[in-house]
Design goal:
232 residues, 3-stranded antiparallel β-sheet, alpha/beta, 9 helices, 6-stranded parallel β-sheet, binds 2'-O-acetyl adenosine-5-diphosphoribose
């Protein structure tokens, strides 16, 4: 069976990673335009790195949860593709082999001048110097910011996986941020069943084949893709 898992911040919530919206959320107390836009980086790169270094420090002790592990476990029996809006890398740590990171990775640094990318697993202190590239340019976090275009090849690969899927799971996303939010729509337009896993209603809940109103770490280990036989 071909399964595509579309995941958002709620997928990592039980690992202790804050979501973006709601109480105690990441954007609370931070205006995205101050820390997650190219303009913010031009204006004050140290402030932006401080925000991402704090996120990296929080992620250092974080482990995949039962939801990530369940998705990786399905690979024994199924063809599983993950397309995630998360930048934390937890699907890969859990063992998922095909992960399209739609919003990039917090563990990548990219040169703002020449575009060279490198893995950067360092959670430096907030006041550390700005990381620089051998070309002399300043490096930035390898995530997609507001106002930026998503990596084209990654989006295309995710779309192709959705089109080819027998079943799509939409896990832990408020589905408010486009173009990632268009992937479940693509599935619905192709009459591919979409199962939503989210303890809350989303603007999408009325359109999916089935809504599992539960946390990812509870719902996914219980879910057996091979037993999926339509809405119930
Ligand atoms: P949000 O914070 O908008 O939504 C998180 C969703 O997860 C909500 O619908 C919650 O109800 C749900 N949720 C919470 N705990 C859960 C759990 N244990 N199991 C399952 N679901 C749970 O996060 P995203 O939709 O991922 O973009 O946000 C999308 C994008 O908005 C992010 O990638 C980021 C942000 O601005 C950029 O930075 C470009």
């Amino acid at each position: 069976m071909k399964i595509v898992v579309l995941s958002g911040a709620g997928m990592s919530a039980e690992s202790g990673v804050p979501t973006f919206r709601g109480t105690d959320a990441l954007w609370n107390g931070h205006r995205p335009e101050d820390v997650a836009t190219p303009e913010a980086f031009r204006r004050d790169p140290s402030n932006v790195w401080e925000f991402y270094r704090a996120r990296r420090r929080n992620l250092l002790d974080v482990r995949p949860n039962a939801g990530h592990l369940a998705v990786a476990g399905w690979q024994d029996r199924h063809d599983v593709v993950v397309a995630t809006q998360n930048v934390d890398g937890l699907h890969q740590v859990a063992g998922s082999r095909t992960v399209h990171e739609l919003h990039g990775s917090i563990w990548i640094a990219r040169c703002n001048r020449c575009g060279r990318e490198r893995e950067d697993r360092v959670a430096a202190p907030a006041d550390d110097a700005l990381p620089t590239c051998p070309c002399g340019g300043v490096e930035r976090p390898g995530v997609v910011w507001f106002g930026e275009v998503l990596p084209e090849e990654t989006v295309r690969a995710a779309e192709q996986a959705v089109i080819a899927a027998d079943l799509v799971l939409l896990v832990g996303s408020s589905n408010l941020v486009y173009p990632a939010a268009s992937l479940p729509l693509l599935a619905i337009s192709r009459r591919i069943p979409v199962v939503e896993v989210n303890p809350e209603e989303t603007p999408f809940s009325g359109r999916v084949s089935r809504h599992m109103r539960a946390a990812a770490g509870e719902a996914l280990p219980r879910f057996e893709p091979e037993s999926w036989n339509g809405p119930n």
